[in-house]
TrEMBL record:
SUPFAM superfamilies: Cysteine-rich domain. Pfam families: C1_2. It comes from Daucus carota subsp. sativus. Coiled coil: none annotated. This is Zinc finger PHD-type domain-containing protein.
């Protein structure tokens, strides 16, 4: 096998054959304009010295394409490989991006490299039942492999209406050395059954993966990647959609300022924005949290008559009730309660899950926590101001790195993926499956795993405190307890007063008769200061 090659597509320098591991994830062949991942590849021998030659790649097969050739649809003249930009293939009618075979007799016949050599019949392990047939003409359809809708030529099964993009059909069966993961990735055609207990997400774009879609997978550490993400190093975690409804543009009677309506604005550094002529925009201070309104959290409400300002978060998202029974701070004027731990949280932290940037204390926008996988509720979170797509909820930020407890003879350690474990994890407390795409507690010595919330379910609440409440003319001594389902099939816990059911919640329970009532209902009963009759 020759290690160097002279090729007319790159006359400046000779080409050298490289191994897989020197090729970037976004490397594209100069001839066929497709990825070179998983293929023997030629690159420019001077690419390290010449900036113009960096990123020049040729599949070994493309570099050694024969010329001239004969083609079944134009067999009266030979076809010659040429650099032709701007033409159209007479077979698939697609635009020719770079190289194509053209008629040596100048009769105008052009065929792209794909159509010249593409297999018209394909046996693929992703559809073993029948042979797939190439339909060279491009059309828009939803692919049965990647589930994406895109314009592409296709391979179809005429027996069972199976239809996939040509790009998907020709994707490598293995990506041997991906730059974003330490193990090879194999092409699989559905999520393995043992990993279907949880909803699975792409480890690059963080979007869900369909159970029956083709994807790349590392079985050693339960690592899933969409097909389109696996072959693009430019794929980055996408912005996760905000789960709440849009804020109203006008709040007519806000509880903090009922006399005037509050109008929503967007903070801007533009000198032409005259929404607040009377005020210096650089000094807008939220009257709720007493923090500046800045470009980083630009949405805010204002009463222009009296110079009253609120972040949109402070106006619409602050929880009116906090569950805690320790010391707390309370503002009688605003009726705002703050847990003592929250009052002294640091404004900036370093966290091992994101150790290349600091995380700053900021309002929560109901994103998904980047380490626990749970949706961050209303309140605050720590987020990266540099990356913009990393956020961690308050509880996860302060998970203990290791702990000793009664369920294990050894300390358990907080672990983050990837986990080099071929199988699934089960929690030693609830015996339910643990999602190994997120953080979990694990003991290496005895191979025990635990849900984070099974070990750390108490929160800022001291259980066992009691309260005297009269219900139906009967006095109950209620103790504070935590009730939570330990299995998905287990029924919810229901409040005997309001009838609401909960998967997990703090309740007050009567030791004598087992009467169960949720905390908001107890607060309502005590506020009314009278017995409740059903």
């Amino acid at each position: 096998m020759s290690l160097t090659l002279e090729h007319f597509s790159h006359p400046k320098h000779s080409l050298v054959l490289k191994d897989f591991d020197v090729v970037g994830d976004d490397a594209i062949c100069h001839v066929c304009d497709t990825s070179v991942i998983g293929s023997l590849t030629y690159t420019c021998s001077r690419s390290s010295d010449d900036a113009e030659c960096q990123g020049f790649y040729l599949h070994k097969s493309c570099a050694e394409l024969p010329t001239p050739i004969t083609f079944y649809k134009h067999n009266h003249h030979p076809l010659i490989l040429r650099d032709l930009v701007g033409g159209y293939c007479d077979v698939c009618y697609n635009h020719v991006m770079k190289f194509s075979y053209v008629c040596s007799d100048d009769c105008g016949f052009v065929v792209c490299v794909f159509c010249a050599f593409q297999q018209r019949a394909l046996d693929h392990p992703g559809h073993e039942q029948h042979t797939l047939t190439l339909v060279p003409r491009e059309s828009l359809f939803a692919c049965d492999a990647c589930s994406e809708e895109a314009n592409d030529s296709s391979y179809i099964c005429t027996t069972c209406d199976f239809w996939i993009h040509k790009k998907c059909a020709l994707s490598p069966l293995t990506i041997p050395n991906p730059t974003y993961h330490r193990h090879p990735l194999d092409l699989i055609y559905f999520i393995p059954k043992m990993h279907r207990y949880f909803k699975r997400y792409c480890n690059i774009c963080k979007k869900p993966i369909r159970k029956e879609s083709w994807l790349y997978y590392c079985h050693k550490c339960t690592y899933f990647v969409h097909m389109k993400c696996a072959t693009s190093s430019h794929s980055s975690p996408s912005d996760i959609a905000i789960l709440t409804a849009p804020d109203p543009p006008i709040i007519n009677e806000h509880w903090s300022r009922k006399e005037h309506p509050l109008v929503q604005f967007q903070f801007s550094t533009s000198e032409n924005d005259n929404n607040e002529k009377k005020y210096d925009r650089r000094e807008l201070i939220c009257d709720g949290c007493i923090q500046p309104i800045t470009i980083f959290h630009p949405s805010y409400y204002a009463c222009m008559k009296c110079g009253f300002f609120l972040h949109s978060f402070c106006a619409t998202k602050l929880p009116r009730v906090l569950v805690a029974n320790g010391f707390f701070y309370h503002c009688k004027t605003c009726n705002i309660t703050i847990d003592i731990r929250c009052a002294f949280l640091p404004t900036k932290i370093k966290h091992k899950s994101h150790n290349h940037h600091s995380l700053v204390y900021r309002p929560s926008f109901k994103f998904e926590c980047s380490v626990s996988g749970y949706t961050i509720g209303g309140g605050v979170q720590y987020g990266c101001g540099t990356c913009g797509n990393f956020q961690i909820d308050i509880d996860s930020a302060f998970y203990p790195g290791s702990m000793k407890h009664r369920y294990d003879d050894h300390p358990v350690t907080l672990r983050r993926p990837p986990f080099f474990y071929e199988g699934v994890f089960y929690c030693e407390i609830c015996e339910d499956q643990v999602n190994n795409q997120w953080w979990l507690y694990h003991c290496d010595e005895c191979d025990h795993s635990f849900h984070n919330d099974c070990l750390l379910s108490g929160g800022s609440v001291k259980l066992g405190r009691t309260v005297e409440v009269d219900i139906n003319d009967q006095s109950h001594t209620l103790a504070l307890v935590l009730k939570r389902r330990t299995r998905k099939t287990q029924s919810e816990y229901f409040c005997r007063y309001c009838g609401n059911g909960y998967k997990s919640n703090h309740f007050l329970e009567c030791d004598g008769c087992g009467y169960l009532i949720c905390c908001p209902c107890v607060s309502q009963i005590k506020a009314s200061n009278k017995s409740i009759h059903f």
